[in-house]
Design a protein that fits this description.
Length: 108
């Protein structure tokens, strides 16, 4: 971990566009998503049901929970439809060369 809380979690070359990748950061499950030319980090657990968001589909800067179909905005973590009503945390991402770094110590 760096002094500012960022941890290397993957290489850019490991990420496929619109395909979530589950990583662990300080014991927290995080879904990394490369979409629309950006990299996003969102908590991997749906706020409605305890299932992995990284198994869902990415579309229009959202990730879908495969179990009940709730979508979460990758920028804000806010759900865009029922049954989820609570947002999930999103985390800051930094790119240094080919390294993808995430900080779970500060939610954005």
């Amino acid at each position: 971990m760096t002094s500012n809380g960022f941890v290397r979690v993957a290489a850019l070359s490991e990420l496929e566009a619109d395909t979530p990748k589950r990583v662990e950061v300080g014991g927290i499950a995080v879904s990394l998503v490369s979409t629309e030319g950006e990299i996003f980090a969102i908590n991997d657990i749906c706020s409605h049901a305890n299932v992995s968001l990284s198994e869902g589909e990415v579309d229009d800067c959202t990730i879908e929970c495969w179990l009940h179909g709730s979508r979460f905005d990758l920028r804000t973590g806010k759900p865009s439809g029922l049954p989820a009503t609570r947002p999930v945390p999103v985390y800051p991402v930094k790119i240094e060369g080919d390294d993808v770094l995430v900080s779970v110590t500060q939610e954005s």
